[in-house]
Amino acid sequence: MRRVVPVAVSLLAVSLLAGCPESRRTEPSDDAAVADAAMRDAAAHDAAMRDAAIDPALVGTVPTSCGAPDQRLVPVDCTARGDSASQCVFGNHCFCSEGFRCEVRGEFEPECDPGVICVPR
Protein backbone atom coordinates (compact mmCIF):
# COMPACT_ATOMS: atom_id res chain seq x y z
CA MET A 1 0.00 0.00 0.00
CA ARG A 2 1.32 3.41 -0.94
CA ARG A 3 1.40 6.05 1.77
CA VAL A 4 0.53 9.65 0.82
CA VAL A 5 1.98 12.43 2.93
CA PRO A 6 0.38 15.88 2.54
CA VAL A 7 2.86 18.66 1.96
CA ALA A 8 2.05 22.35 2.22
CA VAL A 9 4.25 24.51 0.05
CA SER A 10 3.85 28.26 -0.22
CA LEU A 11 3.96 29.98 -3.58
CA LEU A 12 6.96 31.95 -2.38
CA ALA A 13 8.84 28.75 -1.60
CA VAL A 14 7.96 27.33 -5.00
CA SER A 15 9.13 30.49 -6.75
CA LEU A 16 12.37 30.50 -4.76
CA LEU A 17 13.01 26.88 -5.63
CA ALA A 18 12.23 27.57 -9.28
CA GLY A 19 14.54 30.57 -9.29
CA CYS A 20 11.87 33.05 -10.39
CA PRO A 21 13.35 36.57 -10.49
CA GLU A 22 10.16 38.07 -9.01
CA SER A 23 10.85 36.34 -5.71
CA ARG A 24 14.35 37.74 -5.27
CA ARG A 25 14.70 40.78 -3.03
CA THR A 26 16.68 43.64 -4.46
CA GLU A 27 16.74 46.04 -1.50
CA PRO A 28 16.49 45.75 2.30
CA SER A 29 13.54 48.18 2.18
CA ASP A 30 11.51 45.42 0.52
CA ASP A 31 11.09 43.81 3.95
CA ALA A 32 9.48 46.97 5.36
CA ALA A 33 7.17 47.30 2.35
CA VAL A 34 6.09 43.67 2.68
CA ALA A 35 5.50 44.11 6.42
CA ASP A 36 3.46 47.28 5.83
CA ALA A 37 1.34 45.55 3.20
CA ALA A 38 0.79 42.60 5.55
CA MET A 39 -0.32 44.94 8.33
CA ARG A 40 -2.79 46.70 6.01
CA ASP A 41 -4.14 43.35 4.84
CA ALA A 42 -4.50 42.15 8.44
CA ALA A 43 -6.40 45.33 9.41
CA ALA A 44 -8.72 44.96 6.42
CA HIS A 45 -9.28 41.30 7.30
CA ASP A 46 -10.09 42.19 10.94
CA ALA A 47 -12.60 44.81 9.80
CA ALA A 48 -14.23 42.32 7.45
CA MET A 49 -14.44 39.74 10.23
CA ARG A 50 -16.11 42.26 12.56
CA ASP A 51 -18.65 43.06 9.84
CA ALA A 52 -19.17 39.35 9.19
CA ALA A 53 -19.82 38.79 12.90
CA ILE A 54 -23.36 40.04 12.27
CA ASP A 55 -25.44 37.21 10.93
CA PRO A 56 -26.49 38.33 7.43
CA ALA A 57 -30.10 37.65 8.40
CA LEU A 58 -29.78 40.27 11.17
CA VAL A 59 -28.22 43.09 9.12
CA GLY A 60 -30.38 46.16 9.57
CA THR A 61 -32.29 44.80 12.58
CA VAL A 62 -29.86 44.99 15.52
CA PRO A 63 -28.47 48.04 17.39
CA THR A 64 -25.06 47.74 15.71
CA SER A 65 -26.71 47.50 12.28
CA CYS A 66 -30.04 49.32 12.24
CA GLY A 67 -31.75 50.12 8.96
CA ALA A 68 -32.98 47.20 6.91
CA PRO A 69 -31.79 47.23 3.29
CA ASP A 70 -35.15 45.77 2.21
CA GLN A 71 -36.67 49.07 3.45
CA ARG A 72 -34.16 50.94 1.24
CA LEU A 73 -32.20 52.07 4.32
CA VAL A 74 -28.47 52.11 4.90
CA PRO A 75 -27.74 50.45 8.28
CA VAL A 76 -26.27 52.67 11.02
CA ASP A 77 -24.68 51.73 14.35
CA CYS A 78 -26.97 53.08 17.09
CA THR A 79 -24.24 52.24 19.64
CA ALA A 80 -21.42 54.11 17.84
CA ARG A 81 -21.34 57.01 20.33
CA GLY A 82 -21.56 54.89 23.47
CA ASP A 83 -25.22 53.94 23.87
CA SER A 84 -24.71 50.21 24.33
CA ALA A 85 -28.31 49.87 25.59
CA SER A 86 -29.91 51.42 22.48
CA GLN A 87 -32.32 49.35 20.42
CA CYS A 88 -33.24 49.00 16.77
CA VAL A 89 -37.00 49.43 16.29
CA PHE A 90 -38.79 47.77 13.36
CA GLY A 91 -35.46 47.45 11.55
CA ASN A 92 -35.54 51.10 10.61
CA HIS A 93 -34.64 53.43 13.48
CA CYS A 94 -32.73 53.69 16.76
CA PHE A 95 -34.33 53.98 20.19
CA CYS A 96 -31.95 55.73 22.60
CA SER A 97 -31.57 54.68 26.22
CA GLU A 98 -31.44 56.84 29.38
CA GLY A 99 -28.76 59.53 29.15
CA PHE A 100 -28.71 59.58 25.34
CA ARG A 101 -30.63 61.46 22.67
CA CYS A 102 -30.91 61.37 18.90
CA GLU A 103 -28.02 63.03 17.09
CA VAL A 104 -30.58 64.97 15.06
CA ARG A 105 -33.56 65.91 17.18
CA GLY A 106 -36.84 64.54 15.92
CA GLU A 107 -40.49 64.64 16.81
CA PHE A 108 -40.58 61.28 18.60
CA GLU A 109 -37.42 61.31 20.71
CA PRO A 110 -35.99 59.04 22.21
CA GLU A 111 -36.92 57.26 18.98
CA CYS A 112 -34.78 58.63 16.17
CA ASP A 113 -35.54 59.14 12.52
CA PRO A 114 -34.07 56.46 10.21
CA GLY A 115 -30.33 56.92 9.73
CA VAL A 116 -29.88 58.93 12.94
CA ILE A 117 -27.81 57.52 15.83
CA CYS A 118 -27.82 58.04 19.59
CA VAL A 119 -25.40 60.50 21.23
CA PRO A 120 -24.80 61.44 24.90
CA ARG A 121 -27.07 64.19 26.31
Q: Topology of this protein?
A:
Layout: H1 11-18, H2 29-52, E1 61-62, E2 65-66, E3 87-89, E4 93-95, E5 100-102, E6 118-120
Q: Can you describe this structure?
A:
- This protein has 121 residues and is of the alpha+beta class.
- The chain is 26% helix and 13% strand.
- It contains two helices and six strands, in the order H-H-E-E-E-E-E-E.
- The strands form three sheets. A two-stranded antiparallel sheet has the order 1-2. The chain has a two-stranded antiparallel sheet with strand order 3-4.
- A hairpin with a 2-residue loop joins strand 1 and strand 2.
- It starts with 10 loop residues before the first helix and ends with a strand.
- The N terminus is likely disordered.
Short description:
Helices cover 26% and strands 13% of the residues.
Biggest sheet: strands, sense, closure? 2 strands, antiparallel
The tally of beta strands, per DSSP, is 6
Overall spatial form: elongated
Strand content bin: 5-15%
Mean pLDDT: 74
Which strand order do you get reading across the main beta sheet? 1-2
Distance N to C terminus: 74 Å
Percentage of residues in helical conformation: 25-40%
Q: Poorly predicted ranges (pLDDT <50, ≥5 residues)?
A: 3-26
Radius of gyration: 24 Å
Helix and strand content put the structural class at alpha+beta
Written as H for each helix and E for each strand, in order along the chain, the element string is HHEEEEEE
- By DSSP (H or I, 4+ residues per run), the number of helices equals 2
